[in-house]
């Protein structure tokens, strides 16, 4: 038993889940959805990534069905946002930090789950990154937007890079807790750096540089 | 064996399924989709909720794959709508009633299935409500709209209230048939009341009441 | 063992998968998504149909998780499109052919998988057609469009017709390789004919022919 590191991962998992629930609720509010819509979007943003990952891997029922913890953490995030929206909106910096920690932790959890199930490395990377980004993709699709991460954010790239770092360390037999820590720090670092310097992924141009 | 009540639930299930198929087909027609598009939207509206519920709970293959009944009921609903669209559109009141009965019955079926699988009460409510509303959410997403129930309708709230009523009665050991009946009547009552008096859920305002 | 025909089906499966990945990547580029968005859309277009089919039938983990082949074929299709987009765009005729072969083969694979799992004929047709068309539906939904096949293309109808032809031959105990070949040729033939003569499915009009 090595409880402390696991607990730390779990605490970060919960923090990230709550940050995702809050981000979904805020998006719903911006879209002028009603309270039920906000609850659904908050919920789906928080559990979407892990849910799709578990379905694809056949690990059913999905994790949040088997425990009430996620349900109440997400509900708390949604209610806090609805009741104290002005305070929440002022805490954008903190939320951004939780959200960034969240994608790091979700990537690691997805990767480890896939590797535990004997899935090959390239697909394990897909599972890790899916855990982190699919919730946001569903949030944007349900609110009738092209998903943000397809055209604006670099954080999926941060997750992919982190996942590859994890696998390199993992196959070098570095202890799991160190793999996890370096991966999470890598993902957080790349995202903070990208946001700080406004780095985005290039588009695929279909036309000449001279043409329209 | 207690066939009559079960049969009644099943008949309402079929009526609700057909009402959902018709509603999907009408939405597709309004969106000027072609006949294939109408068939898909009709189908997905009718089976979407139960499908997502079964996938999340790992009860696969999903129910409608294992029986032809749903397939032919849905197909009948779609064809009736395509062939007799003027008659169908005049029957809006009847359809609204079937649809309302449908969401009541779907909520009860989803709840009971979740409880049978040993799922905790809060998540069982989510499963019940999902059974009732997810078909409509997929219908609206595929036709490129923000789902209606996120900003206009109160019927998800009716389902949640009904589901909570069901659980209270269920844990008081009220006979199942009475739990079911009271729940369905509660859901139908709330929805009819909300539509009659034009009650909607409040939005989450992100601005001051004075501000824009 | 009857390897050559199986191999042929597999080669066509891979060609179709790559054509789908390329079509997804081109759509993403037209929508001005970034490279990560293009990779996701390419991937989802290529694996979406088979993934949804496998989830509905409970055949998990989904096929592409268990083998790296699809992953690398799809990645190759995406990278070729990104790196050599001008060449790829000039090869539209070839791509259209691969894509058309792909939907024929995907329909046959989905049908056979469903029949192998003991699924009834009408639902098996749904599974076959889903294998062929759902990837494109997800592609269009994620890029915020009403799915093309719901209002413009006839190819789903080609798949349905092919699937019915397959079943008739199958129940007449025609050897599987002949069933497969005739089905694929039927689907390809209908699609080429429909595109050549610009045949589309009728819409469902909700108004009088005289009215607007």
Provide the descriptors you would attach to this structure in a database record.
homotrimer; 212 residues; mainly alpha; globular; disordered C terminus
Major beta sheet of chain A, specifics? none
Distance between the termini of chain A: 61 Å
C-alpha geometry of chain A: globular
User: What proportion of the residues of chain A is helical, as a percent range?
Assistant: over 70%
The total count of strands of chain A amounts to 0
How would you describe the overall organization of this protein?
The structure is a homotrimer of 212-residue chains. The first copy, chain A, has 212 residues and is mainly α. Helices cover 74% and strands 0% of the residues of chain A. Chain A has helices spanning 3-30, 35-57, 69-83, 85-90, 92-116, 121-142, 155-171, 176-196. In chain A, helix 1 crosses helix 2, helix 5 packs antiparallel against helix 8 and helix 7 runs antiparallel to helix 8. The longest helix of chain A is centred in the first third of the chain and has 28 residues, at 3-30. The model of chain A is unreliable at 208-212 (pLDDT under 50).
């Amino acid at each position: 038993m090595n409880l402390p590191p696991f607990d730390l991962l779990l605490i970060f998992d919960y923090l990230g889940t709550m940050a995702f629930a809050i981000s979904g609720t805020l998006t719903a509010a911006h879209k002028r959805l009603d309270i039920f819509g906000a609850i659904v979007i908050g919920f789906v943003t928080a559990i979407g990534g892990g849910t799709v990952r578990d379905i694809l891997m056949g690990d059913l029922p999905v994790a949040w069905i088997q425990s009430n913890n996620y349900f109440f953490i997400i509900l708390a995030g949604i209610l806090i946002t609805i009741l104290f929206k002005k305070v929440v909106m002022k805490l954008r910096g903190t939320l951004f930090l939780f959200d960034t920690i969240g994608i790091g932790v979700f990537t690691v959890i997805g990767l480890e789950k896939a590797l535990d199930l004997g899935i090959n490395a390239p697909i394990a990377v897909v599972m890790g990154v899916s855990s982190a980004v699919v919730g946001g993709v569903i949030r944007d699709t349900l609110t009738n937007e092209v998903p943000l991460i397809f055209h604006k954010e670099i954080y999926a790239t941060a997750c992919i890079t982190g996942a590859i770092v994890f696998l390199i360390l993992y196959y070098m037999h570095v202890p799991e807790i160190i793999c996890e820590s370096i991966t999470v720090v890598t993902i957080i670092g790349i995202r903070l750096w990208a946001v700080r310097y406004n780095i985005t992924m290039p588009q695929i141009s279909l036309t000449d540089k001279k043409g329209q």
